[in-house]
Amino acid sequence: MKNIRDLKIEPATGFTLLEIMVSISIIAIVLVAVYRMHTQTISMNASVKFYTTAPLLAHGKIAELEITTSNELTDDSGNFGEEFPGYRWNVLIEDIESNFLGTTAKDLKKIDVTISFNNDELTYNLRKYRFVGG
């Protein structure tokens, strides 16, 4: 039988509770930061997609207005159907009043096209002037 004095006591290996709690805290802080960056990236992706698509849709709507006669130019609104769900358009046409342009101003129309997405969460405006006189 061995003597108690002959036994070697080796130091305990492993992690203490404090070390585990500190490491879990660090992991939690890092994961919260990564989650915030991820949600911000998703939000930015949606707005970038809108600000890429909306000008194309607005110019398309202006092109449709270009082929209409001056008598047919009226305020209107609608959506883009299943091809662009959530996108809406609004056209506002106004007469121009200008002292500088004189009588020429009566032959000009101001055309404002507004493209909105997700119930006006994002909007894009495009303005054009059209000469409608003879």
Describe this structure in words.
This protein is an alpha+beta fold and 134 residues long. The chain has a single domain, classed as Pantoate--beta-alanine Ligase, Chain: A,domain 2 (2-Layer Sandwich). Helix content is 37%, strand content 25%. It is built from one helix and four strands. It has one helix at 17-66; strands spanning 76-79, 87-95, 108-117, 122-131. A four-stranded antiparallel beta sheet has the order 1-2-3-4. It is rod-shaped, with a radius of gyration of 33 Å. The mean pLDDT is 88.
Strand content: 15-25%
Measured distance between first and last alpha carbons: 121 Å
- Give the number of DSSP strands: 4
How is the largest sheet built, in terms of strand order?
1-2-3-4
Tally of contiguous helical segments: 1
The biggest sheet amounts to: 4 strands, antiparallel
Q: What CATH first level would be assigned?
A: Alpha Beta
Task: Give Rg in angstroms.
Answer: 33 Å
Name the helix and strand elements from N-terminus to C-terminus, one letter apiece: HEEEE
Work out the oligomeric state of the chains in this entry: single chain
**Chain-averaged pLDDT:** 88
Unreliable stretches covering 5 or more consecutive residues: none
Helix content: 25-40%
